[in-house]
Design brief:
2 copies of one chain form a homodimer. Chain A is α/β, with parallel strands linked by helices and 619 residues long. Chain A folds into 2 domains: 22-461, Up-down Bundle (Amino acid/polyamine transporter I), CATH 1.20.1740; 484-613, HUPs (Rossmann fold). Chain A has helices at 2-9, 25-38, 43-54, 65-89, 96-103, 106-139, 146-163, 165-195, 209-215, 223-233, 242-245, 254-283, 294-302, 308-341, 359-375, 380-409, 414-438, 445-471, 496-507, 522-535, 552-565, 590-600; strands at 484-491, 512-519, 541-545, 569-579, 605-613. In chain A, strands 3-2-1-4-5 form a 5-stranded parallel beta sheet, with helices on both faces. The radius of gyration of chain A is 32 Å and the shape is elongated.
Chain lengths: 619, 619
C-alpha cells in the first residue's frame, strides 16, 4: 500500500522545501491562466449554440456574435484592471473570499467563498467535458464514450495534483503555450484566407445533416435570447480571479509578477476570443448536437481536411482544457483550507497531506466534479448554464470589497481606483443578474439555490466550532481535582487477551476494580464461574444476566449503578481486543466495536483497548 | 432513532418468553410450507417456458408436460418420506447441514450449508419476482416497474421479520390458506369446464401477439430440452426441507407435529402442481416474454374475464409467493447461526438481536437477494436456472447422511429406512447432475462455482478461529507478571479536554508519564510552550517536530524510542476527545480517529480515549 501511494503521489516534501516550490511567471501563466484562456475553445461555440440551436435564428445568429464578443472583451479589460489592484493590495493572496472578509464582513465573504468553490468544481466538469469534446471532434468516436473518458481524465489529474503543484506547472507549461501558438496560427491562417483569399462560409456538404437543418432557421432573436447568448459568452471570464488567489505561489516580488502574468493572460484571452469570433462570423460553423466543436470544424475547413495542423489544434485544445481543470485543482483546496482555517469548514480541509497540497480538498473537488459529469452526461452545453453565476457573484463581491478598501486605506490615487472598482462591481453585478435570470430554467437555479445553502452550512459549522471553543476554554491556572479511578474490565470466556486485560487493569492500582461478564443463561454463568475458580483470578467477578441477549444494555446498566454509588467517579472500561491483520480483523471484536461507540457517548467514561496480537491469518 | 427502531421492530422479547413463541401445526404449515406450495404458481409455467420459448415446440410442448409433472410428484413423495425420517431422528432440527455434519463430516456439511444458504437467498429473489409477476398479470403495469416493486417487497418483509417469527406466522396463515383454497377452486372449475363442459384451448384472440407466434412453433424437442424442462419443474421441490430445519419451532411433541405438517405440505403441493399441469395440458396457456403468468391466463379464461375470482386468485398468488420468501427469512438466519456457532461463519451471525431473530442473517439475506433481483432484472425465468442445483445438492447430502445414520444407529426397521434414503439420495443426486448440466450455460454455473467457493471461505474462517483459539489459549494458573505502565498524553493546544486528559493520566500514577505534542513549525512550538508555562502544568512536555505535517509518523517514532528505552514497558496512549452528538461528531477528532486505527495495530500499546462532552450542536 505504502509503495503504491509513493508511486502515485511521489516522495513526501518537508515544510522547509516549500519556499522553493514558487512559480516563475513563465510557469505561473499556464498554471493560473489556462482556465481563462481555455474558454476561447468553447465560449464562441456556446454563444452560437444559444442563437442557432436555442433561438433557431439560422444565418442571422452570426450578426450579434461580434458585438457580444466585443462587450465580453471590454468587460474582461475592466475585470483585469480591477484585479490588478487587488493583487497589489493583497500580496498574500486576495481572492474574492479574502477581499470580502476584510472589507465586507463574514456573510459576504462566505457568499463569495461558496460562489468560488462552486465554480472551481464546475471548472473541472466543464473543462474536462470540453476537452473530451475536442478529442471526439478529432477521432469521431461515439457520444457514449464521453462520460467514461471524462472520468478517466479527472482520475489522472487528481493523481497528478496529489503529487504537488510545481511538477504540475512544469508538466503543463508546454501544452498551454502549444495551444496558444496553434490558436494564433489558426486565427492568422483564417484571417489571411478570409480577407486575402476571400474564402466564404463552410459549405453544406462539410456540415452534418442536423447542422444544415439548423442553418436554415429563420426565427426571430428576442432580447431575452440575446441576453442568454451573452450569458454563455460571459463564461470566458471565468478563471480571471485565479491569479489573485495564487499570489503567494509566485516568485518574489510576488505582486508584481502576478500582476504582469494577469495582464498577459487578459491580453491573450481577449485577442484569441475576438479572433475566433471573427473567424466564426465569416465561416459560419453550424453544428448539431452530435457534432464536434466549432473550432475543429473551422480548423478542418481552413486547413483543407484533417491534416497535421488540424490534429495539432485539436490536441492543443484538449490539453489546455485539461490544464484549465488544473487551475481549479490549485485553487479549490487553497480556498477550502483558508475557509477551514477561519472555522467555517471541517478542519480536515485545513490539514496538509504529505506533498504540500491540501489532499482532502483535491479529493473532494474530484468527487463532486465526477458527480456533475455523470449527472449532466458529460455535455459541456448542459453544464455551461450552471457556470457563470458563481463567477460573477465572486467578481461583484471582490470588487465591492475593493471599493470599501480604497475608502478605508485612502492610498495614492484611491479615488480613481475606487471608481474603477465601483464600475467593475456594478457591471459584474448586473451580469450576474442577467445570467441567473436568463438561464434560470436551464440550470442557473442550481448555483442560485446552492450558494445560499452553502453559506448556511458554513455559518452553522462556524457557530459549532466557536461554541466548542468557548465551552472548552480554560483560564491559565485551571487544574481539576483528582478523580477516583474505577476500572471495569469486560470479560467473555477466559483466554490470553482477557488475562492480559485483567493484569493491565490491576497493575494500574485503580481505586476500585471490577471484572464484568454478561451471561445469557445459567449454563453460561456456571461456565465462567468455574473458569474463574480454576484460574484463581484475584479480582471479583460481577456476572450480569442479559435476558435480551444483548451486551450493551446490561453493561450500561452496571455503569449507571456505579455512577449512582460513587459520584466522584471516572469510570475506565477496559476492553481486551484481538488484533490480527486487516484481512481477518473483521472476524473479531464485532461486539466490542459497537460497545465502544456507545461508551464514547457516555459521560465521564473513558475506554481503553488492550490489544492482544494474534499472528494468524487466513492462508 | 430508538423510537423509530421500536416502531419498526417492536418491543424486545426476553429469552424466557422464547418458549411461548412455538408454532401450532395450523400456523407452522403456512410458515414453513408456503415456499414449497408457492412453487405451484410458477413450476408449470417454467417447464412450458423451456419447451415453448426455448425449444420452440409450439403445441407439441404440452405433450411431455404431464409425464414431467408426474415424475416430479413421485420424486416429491420420495423426498417427503425421506425427510419424515430425518425429522424423527433429529428432533432438535435436522437440516441437510446438521445431518451431514453428524454423519458425513465437516466438508460435506459445509457443502450442504453453502447449497442451502444459496438457495434461501434465491428463494427470496425467485418468490418475490414471481409475486410481482402475478401483480403485473392482474394490473398490467409496465415491465420496468418489476425491479422497484420487488425491492419494496423485500424491504417490507425484512422489517416484518426483524419483528419476530410468531407475529409473522399469524399474519401469514390467512393468505396461505386463501391461496390454497383459490387454487383448488380454480382446478375444480377447470376440471369441470374441461371434462364436463368440454371447453377447448384458450383461443388466439385472448393471447398476445408474441404468444400466438410461439404457439405456431413446430421445432423438435431434443432429449436435452426435455431434461432442461424437467430441471425447471424440479424447482417445485424447493422448500420441502424447511420443515425439518424448523422442528424446534413446533409445539410439543415437536417431531410428530412437524412430521404431520410435512405430509400435509407434500399432499397439497403434489395435488395442486398436478392439477395446474392438467389444466395447462388442456387449455394451452401460451405466453410471451412480456405477458403475465400462465395461472392468470387460465384463470381469466376459465372465469370468463378479469372478475372477482380472477382477482382473488392473483392476489392469493402474490401473497403466497411473498410468504414463500418468508420461509427463507426464517431458515437462512437459523442456518447461518448454526454454522457460525460451529465457527465457520463470522460470530456476528450467531449474535441474536433484540427480538430473538438473528438480525445479521436477516439483513444479509435481504441485501444479497436485492442484488440478485437487480442483476437478473426481477425476471423469474432468468432466476430459475440458478435455483434447483443447490436444492438437490442439499437433498442428496441430507439423505446420504441419513443412510449413514441408519447404519450407525440401527433403530427399528433401519434397513427399510436405509433403502428409502439411499433411493432418495441416488435420485436427488442424479437430478442435481441433470440440473447443473442442462442449465449450466443458463446460470447453473453460478451456484456450481459459488458453492465450492463458499466452502473454501467457511474452511478458511474455521481455520482462523481455531488458530486464534489455540494462540490465545491459557492453562489454569497462568498469570502474567506486572508490566511497567508508561502513559503518553497527546496534546494539541490547551483546552478543557487536554487538561482533563492530563489529569486523568497523572491521577493513575503511572510509572512514567509523558505529554507529547506535534508542532509543524517554530511558531507552533513557541505557542504551545508558552501555554504550558502559563498553565503551569506539572508534566514535562515533549515537542515532536513534524517536517511532513503529519501526526502519525512522529508519534509512532516517539513510541518506538520509548520501546527501545524500556523493554518491559506497556505504553498507554491517552487521547483526549471531544464528543458531541452524531450530527456534529464528524467535525471533531478526524485525526484522532486515524491515529487510533494505527495504534491499535501496534504491539504492546493500549489506547484510551478520554472524552469531553460538549453540549453544543448545529442549530
Amino acid at each position: 500500500m505504502a509503495s503504491i501511494k509513493k508511486f502515485l503521489i511521489g516522495e513526501a516534501i518537508s515544510s522547509e522545501e516549500e519556499q522553493h516550490q514558487r512559480l516563475s511567471k513563465k510557469i505561473a501563466l499556464p498554471v493560473f491562466a489556462s482556465d481563462a484562456i481555455s474558454s476561447t475553445a468553447y465560449a464562441t461555440d456556446e454563444i452560437l449554440w444559444v442563437l442557432v440551436g436555442g433561438a433557431g435564428a439560422g444565418v442571422a445568429a452570426f450578426r450579434p456574435l461580434l458585438p457580444i464578443a466585443i462587450i465580453v472583451c471590454v468587460l474582461l479589460a475592466i475585470v483585469v484592471t480591477s484585479y490588478r489592484q487587488t493583487i497589489m493590495a493583497y500580496p498574500s493572496g486576495g481572492g474574492a473570499y479574502i477581499v470580502s472578509r476584510e472589507n465586507l464582513g463574514a456573510t459576504p465573504a462566505l457568499i463569495a467563498g461558496s460562489a468560488l468553490l462552486t465554480d472551481y468544481i464546475l471548472t473541472v466538469a466543464v473543462s474536462v467535458a470540453g476537452g473530451v469534446l475536442a478529442m471526439r471532434t478529432a477521432f469521431g468516436f461515439s457520444r457514449s464514450w464521453a462520460v467514461p473518458l471524462c472520468l478517466i481524465c479527472v482520475f489522472v489529474m487528481t493523481v497528478m495534483n496529489l503529487r504537488g503543484v510545481k511538477e504540475s506547472g512544469a508538466a503543463f507549461a508546454g501544452p498551454t503555450y502549444f495551444y496558444i501558438v496553434m490558436l494564433l496560427i489558426l486565427i492568422g491562417t483564417g484571417l489571411y484566407r478570409i480577407f486575402v483569399q476571400h474564402v466564404g462560409p463552410i459549405p453544406d456538404h462539410i456540415l452534418s445533416e442536423e447542422a444544415v437543418h439548423l442553418s436554415h432557421g429563420t426565427k426571430y432573436m428576442s432580447i431575452f435570447m440575446l441576453l442568454r447568448a451573452f450569458s454563455s459568452g460571459a463564461v470566458a471570464l471565468s478563471g480571471v480571479e485565479a491569479v489573485s488567489n495564487g499570489v503567494p505561489a509566485f516568485e518574489k516580488p510576488e505582486s508584481k509578477n502576478a500582476s504582469i502574468t494577469l495582464m498577459w493572460m487578459g491580453g491573450i484571452l481577449g485577442s484569441c476570443f475576438l479572433g475566433v469570433s471573427i473567424l466564426a462570423v465569416h465561416l459560419k460553423p453550424f453544428r448539431g448536437e452530435a457534432d464536434g466543436n466549432g473550432l475543429g470544424l473551422m480548423a478542418e475547413y481552413l486547413y483543407n481536411g484533417k491534416g497535421v495542423m488540424f490534429w495539432a489544434t485539436m490536441i492543443g485544445t484538449f490539453l489546455i482544457l485539461i490544464l484549465a481543470a488544473n487551475t481549479a485543482y490549485a485553487d479549490f483546496p487553497r480556498l477550502a483550507s483558508i475557509i477551514a482555517k477561519d472555522g467555517f469548514l471541517p478542519r480536515q480541509f485545513f490539514n496538509r497531506g504529505t506533498r504540500l497540497v491540501f489532499s482532502n480538498g483535491v479529493l473532494f473537488l474530484a468527487g463532486v466534479a465526477c458527480i456533475l459529469i455523470v449527472a449532466f452526461d458529460g455535455d459541456i452545453s448542459k453544464l455551461i448554464p450552471l457556470y457563470a453565476f458563481g463567477v460573477f457573484t465572486g467578481f461583484t463581491l471582490s470588487q465591492s470589497g475593493m471599493v470599501v478598501h480604497h475608502f478605508k486605506d485612502k492610498e495614492k490615487n484611491w479615488k480613481v481606483s475606487a471608481v474603477i472598482n465601483a464600475t467593475g462591481a456594478f457591471l459584474t453585478g448586473l451580469i450576474a443578474t442577467i445570467v441567473v435570470v436568463s438561464k434560470f430554467t436551464e440550470g442557473a437555479w442550481i448555483p442560485a439555490l446552492l450558494i445560499p445553502f452553502m453559506v448556511f452550512g458554513f455559518r452553522a459549522i462556524g457557530n459549532h466550532y466557536e461554541k466548542g471553543r468557548q465551552s472548552t476554554h480554560v483560564e491559565p491556572g485551571y487544574w481539576p481535582t483528582r478523580e477516583t479511578h474505577t476500572l471495569v474490565v469486560l470479560v467473555g470466556s477466559i483466554n490470553l487477551g482477557v488475562i492480559r486485560g485483567l493484569q493491565y487493569a490491576r497493575s494500574l492500582h485503580p481505586d476500585r476494580l471490577y471484572a464484568v461478564t454478561v451471561a445469557t443463561d445459567d449454563e453460561d454463568r456456571k461456565r465462567i464461574e468455574q473458569q474463574w475458580l480454576e484460574f484463581n483470578i484475584p479480582i471479583d467477578l460481577e456476572i450480569l444476566y442479559s435476558p435480551y441477549r444483548e451486551l450493551r444494555k446490561p453493561v450500561m446498566g452496571f455503569l449507571d449503578e456505579l455512577d449512582a454509588k460513587y459520584s466522584d467517579n471516572i469510570i475506565t472500561v477496559v476492553i481486551p481486543e484481538f488484533v490480527t491483520s486487516w484481512k481477518t480483523q473483521w472476524l473479531h471484536n464485532g461486539s466490542a466495536f459497537a460497545l465502544k461507540a456507545s461508551l464514547l457517548h457516555r459521560r465521564h467514561t473513558a475506554v481503553v483497548s488492550v490489544p492482544t496480537h494474534m499472528n494468524i491469518d487466513i492462508k
